[in-house]
Fold each of these.
Amino acid sequence: MNTEFLLQINQLRAAIDDKEILKGLNLEVRPGEIHAIMGPNGSGKSTLANVLTGRDIATVTHGSISFEGRNLLDMSPEERAREGIFLSFQYPIEIPGVSMVNFMKTAINEQRKHRGLEPLSASEFLRQMREKKELVEIDSALTNRSVNEGFSGGEKKKNEIFQMAMLEPRLAVLDETDSGLDIDALRIVANGVNKIRRPDTSVIVITHYQRLLEYIIPDYVHVLYDGRIVRSAGPELALELEERGYDWIRKEADITAESWTTDRK
Amino acid sequence: MEKDQDKVLNEVTSGEYKYGFVTDIETEVIPKGLTEDVVRLISAKKEEPEWMLEFRLKAFRHWLTMKMPSWAHLKIPVIDFQDIIYYAAPVQKKGPDSLSDVDPELLKTFDKLGIPLEEQKHLTGVAVDAVMDSISVKTTFRETLAEMGIIFCSFSEAVREHPTLVQKYLASVVPYTDNFFATLNSAVFSDGSFCYIPKGVRCPMELSTYFRINTLNTGQFERTLLIADEESYVSYLEGCTAPMRDENQLHAAVVEIVAERGAEVKYSTVQNWYPGDKEGKGGIFNFVTKRGICKGDDSKISWTQVETGSAVTWKYPSCILRGNNSTGEFYSVAVTNNYQQADTGTKMIHIGRNTKSTIVSKGISAGFGQNSYRGLVKVLGKAAGARNFSQCDSLLLGDKCGAHTFPYIEVDNPTAIVEHEATTSRIGEDQIFYCNQRGISTEDAIGLIVNGYAREVINKLPMEFAVEAQKLLQISLEGSVG
């Protein structure tokens, strides 16, 4: 096992309702790296986020994922979270009746318990809340409300980044965090991510468009197509995709896929 | 996805009942069955005066002409009223004058239930009347209260010691002819609590009655009478548990509250009777009539209930708002898990001018539970300026349970304002996953969500009990998601 990597995904195959979505995906992420995963709709981007966080919509049928050298697939979703995997949801969920303060306090203290630390004192917790709220420019009143309840689309996305700031993950997965954001909100959210990122925080940015990557500059860009990463390069690849679309990727990939299918037969 | 959700829900809703033990204590029981002789026997055992026996007999004779009501949204097996023991009492040498006279087994039982009867050990500010099966075991802090003129004792004792008060108020809110179960109770009621707060007195501590069913095949029929004289105040709490048994046990209580001019009564219940097992076997049938009258102007009665136990709950704590400017409140959280059924709600009867009522009902259904809210808001012709606000929310965990709302509104005064709001929501798998992704386990996630949902009602409970109620909610739903 290579400890150089924070995350290692090896030949991952996953299916939803017996339909194979991920078809042998490989990805290696070192501490501090930013990886962008781009690809057309239906290529398996969200399934990858689900598999990483342990949501059992998708079933892993083959391959392995190791996180800090441990088998990620053996861990429950909450254990993964406590180990430092954070997902910024594409569609953040509303939880009426549960205040943001209570929610966040429970989450933080669960994480601390997992790491053998005492619960945060009320004053220290509130201090952190204040500090992180400023960092992501979230309206103070929002944290007095129930989790995401009645938040606008932009507020929900900011709230995700706020939670990320509070939980200080080792690996943050941003699932289409740019969708539904106007340019100002996008800037705030992206800058928020940059500000809260520590040198060893790794980020996987799942996105359809290039525009978020203007703010969160990736070290690598991967193109996911038909359940596999078909091309990896530096940030310039994102620009190329923006210009040329995905069709050329599709064509190239389909040729390869065709020949693989033949191989297997 | 559906499948996973079911799995999750199944696990959280299968918590265990922790008060299911039986106390091994010598108990005096009378033979099963109900006849006029049994009614006479109960009365004799309690050494009651003639007028009390007459009241019982009138009720019994009337009961014989009645049928069990069937309008509730409940499936109840046929109850054989001849197969029930109507009187069971832990044997004690004499009346327990002091704690040293109380059987140590009994003390242990209540200790185990978290109700210490030794006053110095007790939560400061709570006086307890402990009732096991048919009789009151011990009432704490009586002397302290007596100094202020407050009477707090068992019902039987009140019949003996304060007959004028009892005769004046007994059945003045719930007449013996009221309904099948109230009538049955009037005939065979065993014990319960009696409380009188004199004019202008603010009761300095919470009064509380703790009911415990112990003996097999016994029905529990307690009766509580609470009188708040002019300008007085009292906060009262009722708790209850029972052993785990395969047989259903019947509980048919009556609670009457009288609030005179300017008086305020706060009545809180944490109902945790045995709910039956996961397959729906056993559990208490809880048929309770609770009603209060705001008799004088500017009086107020507030009911708060957290209903987590019982196989069947049939209960409608109500307020008759007779005094002008009087106020009635009903705050309720009812949980039905596994095969529990609840049909619960309230009646607010506006008679006086400018009377106000508030209803907040929160139903939580899990497993195969069925939860109904049934409420009546009635504004009579003379109740000018009457005002009601009702809010009925239902929360569903899983897809095999049910939530139902039956609101009845009858308004005969054109100046009245009556509002009704209702919502139904469910704890979704996506909400739970969202919590999981932040490191919160499924059980804790459900606890957070359910307590958040019920907070408005829990906050109405006296503080010591609010914490207990929160835990209880979580325990009641434990295992229903995983």
Amino acid sequence: MKKLLSIFAVVAFAFSAHAGTLDDVKNRGFLKCGVTTGLAGFAAPDDSGEWAGLDADMCRAVAVAVFGDRSKVEFITTTGKSRFPTLASGEVDMLARNTTWTISRDVNLGFEFVGVNFYDGQGFMVPSALGVSSATELDGATVCIQTGTTTELNLADFFRLNGISYEALPIETNDEGKENLFAGRCDVYTTDASGLSSTRAAASNPDKWVVLPEIISKEPLGPLVRHGDHQWGDVVRWSLNAMIIAEELGITSENVDAQMSSNVPEVLRLLGVEGNYGEMLELSNDWAYQIIKQIGNYSESYEANVGPDTPLEIARGLNALWTQGGILYAPPFR
Amino acid sequence: MNEMNEVRKPPVATTGIIGWLRINLFFNWTNSLITLFVIYCLYQFIPWILDWTIFSADFKYNYLGEQITNQEMCSRNLDPENGGACWAVIYVRFYQFIYGFYPKVEVWRVNLAYFMLAFALLPLLYTKLPYRKYFLYFTYIFPVIAYFLLNGGLGFTEVSTNKWGGLLVTLVLGCTGIALAFPIGIMLALGRRSKLPVISMMCTLFIEFIRGVPLITLLFFGMVMLPLFLPEGIDMDGLVRVLVAVTLFQSAYMAEVIRGGLQAIPPGQYEAAKSLGMSYWRMNLLIILPQAIRISIPPIVNTSIGLFKDTTLVIIVGILDLLGIGRGTLADTNWLGLSYEIYFFVSLVFFIFTFGMSRYSLYLEKKLKTGINMGAD
């Protein structure tokens, strides 16, 4: 099935390789961005029907880069299965949909991941009453696990490597996992750490649950575009990088106007005061300034959507800047 | 002697409430036991559910009198001992549940369409309506009006179907699917029984193929494969693709339901019609179909209710119907953990519609006396 899909993707791509996506987007007047049908902290409609979340901010940042207006974006909801064909057929210009960057998706499906906007990984959640502080102490535990996912394989690998046993309780959806864990039918629930955080936040008493420190898989989530349209890929890539660099340089939506008269050369280059980087991307020269002004830097977006002050309470961890113990690292802006 | 003629009343124990109770609830000891058990269950359950859904529930304000804007402010999260349901989430999100992301300034168009839908259904549902003929004209042009109202065009601003959602999508899918599937289903049923081998084979093939795959597969095909086959530039709307899949699916089922009705018509009816010199179409339209459809009412309503509920499957192709909006709400960090309220509300809305359909079908059956043994004479 996967092979078949990728063949279709390639065929569709062959037909759609015409004018650049950037021109299409500009002519259309708004960006079409594929997001999830609702995932806490990443993309979900708020009370007024506006999409909010880390991935939604990514979409808005690209819209701001192209149009200078954060509202010039149409969110298209996609599911885990429909996301790739939707992108391949040109129904969306980009995906910002919690998609793990893997070699097969990058190469075989004919997409291009332009960066990582969230480093996730599979984790474990247990009741704090269990008194467990590490996943290696989980010998003999009953584990709620979504069937047919990579998490299932990672789990088997992890327990085999550590020479401990477990009993799997297969479930289909996140909701089911949540109910089973809360009802005590399994001792451990395992899925991506961000998913665990939202599950924990949904509990009536979140303090009764702990997410264990072990992360047993790499799940770099990032925005992706169709293979081959490098100009458009660059726009999306540098929209993400601009947010990360802005955090590095300490530029926030609050102080961006003051920073226009900074004496740091990279700040001036980023904000379009010096150089013509906007022109190189075929954007206006203040594109990065507008992103920071209207969306904020990476840290602002993170803190507002998934950070410790939100119900999800996800610490920066790997997603901190490389200067602060994380692995978030954007190429220099020059 | 007069006393002898006086009519004696039946024993108290067989009439009135007591008699009814005795016959229906306490006929023998097993019967009594079951009755008592059920009463006990209801006694346990009803006060609890009423308390949770109404008496202890928050509708807009919590017990401190604050207006609720996120789940932490719900009474049951402030004080787990006392709070009931937190309906504030439905209150705050009501617009999304009903209209999806339809722009607020244009929402009168959806309201007007809902209102006109009621008018369009009226002559179909009540045959005794005065001036029914004129109402029916309106019913025929209603789909066109609704299309322009909801989608835009003819001077209305266009509202992309990406912005549709909630009950609007559920009703559009349900109504269009049911309304289009009915005539297509009739044609397929007649086609399958046709004496012309090509037509009969094509109809049979279509029905068997569509019935042989799950609706999810058809939805995926419509959503995922179709755009890859279409030439560049022809951009078929996502909702339209789903509508096509839903309609094809429903027509195949409808065809089989109606074929069942056709087979129940005794051959004498066909022969009688033919002996009057009626053509194939006149015979079917005037003699056969009215009878066949009449006896098929229960299964027709059955598959229609089934389709109405199946529309929730569109979530897997990324269209947010009523249930999809509910799930989206659960993914908002402000409303995490309110799944009971949201699923309760969604099921209540579905129940209202499906129960309405089923009661209407009972009314129709009674009116048309479908129960009589046709062809007995």
Amino acid sequence: MLWTVTSTLLTGFGTTLKLFFLTLLFALPLGLVISFGSMSKFSPLRYLTQTFVWIIRGSPLLLQILIIFYGPGLLFHLPLLPRFTAALLSFVINYACYFSEIYRGGIQAVPRGQYEAGQVLGMTPGQIFFRITLLQVIKRIIPPMGNELITLVKDTALVRVIGVYEIIWTGESFTKKGLIWPLFYTGLFYLIFNGGLTILFRKMEAKLDYFK
Amino acid sequence: MKKKFLALLLVCGLVLTLAACGGAPAETGGNDSASGNAETQTPDDTATPDDAATPDDTATPDDAATPDDTAAPDDTAMLSGADDASDTAYVQDKGTLVIGITDFAPMDYKSDAGEWIGFDADMAKAFADSLGVKPEFIEINWDNKLMELETKAIDVVWNGMTITDEVKEGASVPDAYCRNGQVVVVPAAMADAYTTVESLKDLSFAVENGSAGAEQLDLLGIPYTALDTQARALMEVASGASDACVIDLLMAGAMIGEGTSYPDLTHTLQLNSEEYGVAFRKGSDLVDVFNQFWADASAQGTVMETATMYGVQESVIVK
């Protein structure tokens, strides 16, 4: 019994993990692009990006998932995206906005004097970013990133609202057969995975601790 | 040295993710060349037109006609919505009937082999057969069923759905195929004390959000806790979080009492009687097709036979 339930839950957790890793793959770089947008010296772009970030961070992810999946069909009679794709798209957009603010914090925390020093040495802005700023940014953003990633793992449970069968959905389907414990057993999967993430982030933090 | 290496690795990782982002156009390039491949394949197909065309034309001229039809109505359906196009033609053109369900024994549930079975599932398969298309079952979030229909995410809701005014407004519903009612479920020890509508006011209730049971409680003016499934409402009563719940009679028959996971629960008062129906898109011509199908299946005895198999023979409506 335990084995049947575990293997069924694992298929659901597979979807959860797929959503998690694909979101990271696309949202991490997209977040950097958005953060450049919100720090741009060209003010229309800056205001546009900041408004976008405000809308995405200011409204519930649950609503965004519903709008991205049902919106095209309801508003324009267009064919819908596949369920998983719609879920992934809403997660990538949502998390890229959160990541962008973390990047921005990390980038702006690097003292101005270092840019100037780079300029004095005749480095291009690209060289200054990649050779001086980036590694310091990575070190600074690791703790808030760890926080955000753990939230992301748990937020994936929201996609069951459009019928993507992640682990909570799988666990809940057992309650319809009168089996209650699998729903709570799903918590263990999250705990173990997030435990792994926590350890990983501690290690990365320790490794980068050699410079201030 | 080791640390420097790791730092370098991390930078590489970040640069790579950047590259992945910039790589998007490159991917589209890949797609272009893929479609280029597809194009080069087409001549290959046409290179042997005799092989491809002849069997179709000779064996089933109807089939040969269908792909021609497919191209045209599909395009128009995409542009103008389903309003003027025939829904039956739309379903037959794409070759699958997408059936929106939830896990709801004995109507739709999974066999040990992982296949969808149940009274509704089996009849839905027969209906898809009669249309000459493949049935495809999709578990949906029940709150979104009308939206799923309207956006063509599914073609029909076939899941022991109570026919309510709300459903009739948002979808097209053929004749009812099953009778049902909403019943009050309480712990067996409390059953004797709560047999009248008046006595219910002392109880705390749990009910599925937006269900027919919730509607009955609204009519009686009794407050309740709304949950996302009927099974969750049962769990409330079993755990003592609520005193009672209101669920479908058919479900109560299958899920509570001796020999089930809820042996200490029983159902007392029936609050109403109602009917089950399927729902198609608003204005769909599948409504008439369904009514004809149900009449035929009743005449052939398929309806009764399937109903007996799943223990709903007393509730089913035979035409």
Amino acid sequence: MDQKELRRQFSLFKSSRLSNLKTKIFGPLLLALFFTSTITIFAQDGDPFAGKALFNTNCASCHKLDRKMTGPALRNVETRLLEDEGLDREWLYAWIRNSSALIKSGDAYANKIYEEYNKSAMTAYPQLTDSDLNNILAYTAQEKVVPVAVAAATQVSNVPSNDLGLSDQIILGVFAILFLLLSIGLVLVAKTLKNLAELKGVKIEEKKKGKPIWKAYLENQFLMLCTAVIFLLVSAYGFYGWTMQVGVNQGYMPVQPIHYSHKIHSGDNKIDCNYCHSSARVSKHSGIPSLNICMNCHKSIYEYNGETTEEYSKEFYDGEIKKLYKAVGWDDEAQEYTGVTYPVKWVRIHNLPDFAYFNHSQHVSVAGIDCQTCHGPVEEMEIMYQHSPLTMGWCINCHRETNVNIKDNEYYDRIHKELSKKYGVEELTAAQMGGLECGKCHY
Amino acid sequence: MKFNIKILFLIAVLMQSCWGDRGAPNYEYMPNMYESLSYESYSENNLFEDNLSARLPVEGTIPRGYSLYDYEDTNEGYESAKKNLTNPYILNQEEMLKAKELYTVYCGVCHGSKGAGQGILVKREKILGIPSYADPGRAITSGSTYHVIYYGKNTMGSYANQLNEKERWMVTSYVMKLKSDLSK
């Protein structure tokens, strides 16, 4: 983290050098830099780098520097308290080390802030020493400079990407012109050759006009018969193929009301499938998670900071998080639920026909099959789609090839022993255990 | 042979184009056999005002196999659970493994595999400030852990709908094990 901070400072330093070149534009930035340095001088008695690490491990679950969370925003908390309430650093020490004792002692401001934040009691931090607290306060006293640096960085990084796009177009254009010139050249060469031949008196032989090939073909009965047979076979095969794909939704990729990327959640952040689809362990359905599960994380994650592409920009993803907040009725400014909710109309992708029974818990908990076996590489899907055909042939094929998972499962002890003796095999497949019986899935 | 392969390829291409729009479901032979007559869990339903088929249990009833939780979602409730609530289960080795599995799925992403607050979301700086279970200021107990799993606290949400009562206690046991490992 410290390194990151250093790098940011360095990039600021670079941009300040840039600003020397364009003093008019970057003047204000220099000014801001000047202010930062003066303020850090004021709060000299703490180390903001160490403070940041402490802040992130201890405070960040409830406080951010510039945003209200479970607790108030903490930027310049010390100066604000001193100026607005006349409370000094000693008061902050007492509050942080044991806020509930301070509230009980009847301190006016302590009680006021306790009421203001819905009586959420702040955890006591008796283990933090004076110097720890000074470091944290030094960190909160730092001026907000991050967005300037980011803006400058994006401005710089945007330029070459535009250049690339332009040069691509130029290269394509050059190629197109080259091809045009080449074809014109070829036509010209052909013309001059013809002229040359005429000049030298070489006669170009004209082709004799015989029977046209299609006529000969039509008159040959054997060829016609073959053609007819092939045509019939091909169209029968085509018709068969067409009938077989009716009702099969492999590759179905509908547009969802909120663009939820499985790639980000399950691929990049390695959140287990069962975290959200928790009912897959215990019920027939693998449920669509209700929005409170999204809010487990998105209460604190209000913006996207991962990789972006042109199609899926940060603004795009941030907008999708806003959609979630609207649906679940979360007021991000006030950090509370409004109570006005809009159910999200997710579009169901995997849908077995009503006449087929399928149970998730049987496959997930009992058999211990990976979700990806049927749903494909979901952790790589930016947009969810149906990976498998979900046809009966596909189900049965897997039942024929997969051995029953009997590990640590008393239920299968006896039947597995008897059936494997009957079939003369070491391990039973799901099919041999009855996985092909009609009534298992159709009733 | 070559000819055949070409034709097969052509047919494959043609068949692909049969169902062109991947954004809409394919057509079915007999839709009335495919689509359920009874209401499906997530289907729309104009019988109710909110158009949802999924209903909450009737007020004042509890589902079979569930029991009531007596502590309120307040600071007092938390303190009281912390002091008075105890774990009714003692896990055997097998159940402890199962508890670890549950912990890894539902808690590990933030609290980390050791419970020190260093889960993958913390390491990737998505969520910050996850405390260690051994944090002296919180001094968690079985009761307070169960209470927080049940209701959530501050930024942490409730896990009551992802874990049932026994599973919550299993996870609580595992958390207390991690705490004692951390304090060593």
